[in-house]
Amino acid sequence: MIRVRITRARGSTPREEGAEMMVGAETVTGTIGGGQLEYLAIDRARQMLARGEEQAVMDVPLGPEIGQCCGGRVELMLDREPASPAALRPSVLIFGAGHVGRALARAMLLLPVNVRLIDQRAAELALAPDVPGELTPLPEAEVRRAPSGSAYVILTHDHALDFLIAAEALARGDAAYVGMIGSATKRATFSRFARQRGIDPAPLICPIGGTVRDKRPEVIAAFTAAEIMATLLARHPAHATA
């Protein structure tokens, strides 16, 4: 893989300094703004892959010379990136493969995160064959194995299980986001449950999705996906440039 990164942007440019993309022999992840600039960078990156080059720089005017009308100028650094693009993405664990869980997982698939849909029920997971799934009798164990800075979204069919997973996620102390579907009453009940176990319930987001009152799974999923991404980008601003 070759990482293409904007190291300097002058004038009007399609992306800011720090924006990057990853270029493989047949794949491209991320964007530096599209257009002829991106095509030139992809072509140069693939030349590097073919020749075994480790590093290159490009200084590109965004004018008539390349058929782009921004009028600015960008400098690019191209180098080999040992980590895969997926390894650089935050993890989003969705507990519960019901209607909302499946809709949210599909929405998150379009975003720069690693998403997993986790459930105890094989039949529910089978309804989302397009989503990376995890069938497990102990969903809370997946919380313990998750990377630091992960997001946890809790939407199971069982309130007791919801509470257990939320408590595990909050107890870690390193979660980027912990959200649970439900009402203000459910949140109040969980707060008592958490405090009895010495866990601060304050970081929990419940209800999820902000103030949306629409009950359709796809609408809840859209608002929740936006909420998760806003939280992740606030915590890890570097991901906003990818």
Protein model, in words:
The structure is a single chain. The chain is built from seven helices and ten strands. By secondary structure, the chain is of the alpha/beta class. The strands form two sheets. It has a five-stranded antiparallel β-sheet. A five-stranded parallel β-sheet has the order 8-7-6-9-10, with helices on both faces. α4 packs parallel to α5. It is elongated, with a radius of gyration of 21 Å.
What is the radius of gyration computed over CA atoms, rounded to a whole number of angstroms?
21 Å
Mean pLDDT across every amino acid position: 89
Please outline the major beta sheet.
5 strands, antiparallel
Strand segment count? 10
Widest sheet: strand order?
3-2-1-5-4
Principal-axis shape: elongated
Q: What gap, in angstroms, lies between the N and C termini? A: 15 Å
State the helix count. 7
Order of H and E elements: EEEHEEEHEHEHEHEHH
Helix content: 25-40%
Fraction of residues in β-strands:
15-25%
Give the topology, please.
Elements (H helix, E strand, L loop, with lengths): L1 E9 L9 E4 L4 E3 L4 H17 L3 E7 L11 E8 L10 E5 L3 H11 L4 E6 L2 H4 L7 E3 L3 H7 L5 E4 L4 H14 L4 E4 L3 H13 L20 H19 L7
Parallel strand pairs: 6-7, 6-9, 7-8, 9-10
Antiparallel strand pairs: 1-2, 1-5, 2-3, 4-5
Helix pairs in contact: 2-7, 4-5
Organism: Paracoccus niistensis
Protein name: Xanthine dehydrogenase accessory protein XdhC
